[in-house]
Amino acid sequence: MKEFTLAVIVIAFFGIASGQTRTEWQQKVAPSLLTKSSDGASFPFLIVLSSQANVKDASQLNTKEEKASYVFSQLKFKATQTQTGILSLLDDMNVPHQSLFIVNAIKATGNIDLIRTLASRPDVKKILDDADQKFAGPVEWSQENGSRQTIEWGIDMINADEVWALGYRGQGVVVGGEDTGYQWDHEAIKNQYRGYDADRDTVDHNYNWHDAIHEISVLSPDSLNSCGLNLKAPCDDFGHGSHTMGTMVGHDGDNEIGVAPDSKWCGCRNMERGNGSPFTYLECFQWFLAPTNLNDENPDPSKSPAVINNSWGCPESEGCDPSNWEILNQAVINLKLGGVVVVVSAGNDGSGCSSVTSPAAIYEASFSVGATAENDTIAGFSSRGPVAVDSSFRTKPNVSAPGVHVRSVKLGGGYVRSSGTSMAGPHVVGLVALMISANPSLAGKVDLIEDIIESTCVPKTTDQNCGNIPGSQVPNNTYGYGRVDALAAVQAALALIPTATSNPNPYADVSVYPNPVKDEFIIDAGISKGEMSFDLFDAQGRFVMHHQWNTSGRSIEKINLEANEPGMYFYRIMNAGVMKQGLVVKQ
């Protein structure tokens, strides 16, 4: 009888058997929050507002600075314009809260009565759980330091050292990482920290570091954290973040462990000893769009990094709630529109199909990375696509990179080997830095950068057939487009730089635009005569198209690529015995 009475009370409380009004507010609330509320306790949650900024026009802007500034201003304006009423209510009720603008949302802590009040408001779209989540860490940490190699195997595998030989080591590029924190003064990454001035031996953490960890996670085994909370200087309470940063930029003169060793870095702690929440992830995404000073004031989108690493993820089985996937996805989209490449580790739940299950690897806007071993085959633990958890069945990962026995920074000093897609993603972050170092005009052109990386991968096939895509096809759901090749990607980036020629032959005066192209591009021959021909080849050198026409004087010819698949293509133009070659990217 007691069980029956309790069930009736619970049903009545949640409105399952009550009127329409109560059902409406409950439909806005994540089911996990409703199950938490039976004892009247307070807990953290996210208030997602109905009105969200549309920043898609940022894609029409040219430079990274323009994109970041536009996205920041639009998002900030929308949040300021629409959050006033809710913030005033929370202030009047003395409810702890924190506002976001990367998505229009507010974090608050309260009980079911507060949730009911907020969910009843028309300006509230959803109320989501902000439960702590434990990330899937590396598959293994090696206890031995590992002997130093002239070039680490992963750097050699992707030909990054050959890019260095061309003079491109990531100089002039800033990368970012959100993780368990960073030991900024480790010998391999200290000089590359954007806040450190090696000439003066001084450090300034403003705009270079942010801590999104404000409280101890309920999943932590005790109440102590070796670094503390609300840190004003970078610290790593787990070791994972420092290891990933080493693979991006690390070197100490002897140990060349980083793909882009002359890049600078900035960082954000989004996990407390490996435990994060949707809000901590969102807070770091927001900071990377417009870094702030140490008081979280005066955001400056001009200091946004070119690319960020996300070697974390949380599948539903470890506490992630599908109801909050949408808000995390929107944050990734907004950051990408702001000109930041969002690199995400695919996860370590392989080797079965549809094992890419974690935000943010599952998103279309994320550039997801699988892991390969020293024999250049996929690692057994590397997660595969297609993405089934959201019923999109999209192909993932995008690409693959070295992720087994990767030697990098060890917390406290020295070096250690580790395996996981957490180690693969940083190789791709470093690759992005090398590309922008070679061609600075690529900064902010996220789709173009990703297209080049995919198109220049070493194609990898497998006998594993996942989804409707055979493993013999490229891309596939095991490797994506294949294993990244830094040299090929940088060469493609260099090919996009306009070059002025002094060829005395007037028929060589030919330009091709726009590039990248959506449907149609123009061949503009300033002075030409006779037959002109155009041949197009795909990234693997296979013939795609031939077109020819007769010219006399200036010739403007339109080439339609509407039927061609997105990707990178090489072209050859011939006129009067003079050849012009180049690269065009179809978006």
Automatic annotation (TrEMBL):
Gene3D superfamilies: Peptidase S8/S53 domain
This protein's UniProt keywords: Hydrolase, Protease, Serine protease
All residue ranges annotated as the Peptidase S8/S53 domain in the record: 170-482
Secretion system C-terminal sorting domain span: 512-577
Active-site residues (renumbered): 179, 240, 422
One Pfam family hit: Por_Secre_tail
UniProt GO MF annotations: serine-type endopeptidase activity
One GO-annotated biological process of the protein: proteolysis
NCBIfam families in alphabetical order: Por_Secre_tail
Entry's family note: Belongs to the peptidase S8 family.
Name of the protein in its database record: S8 family peptidase
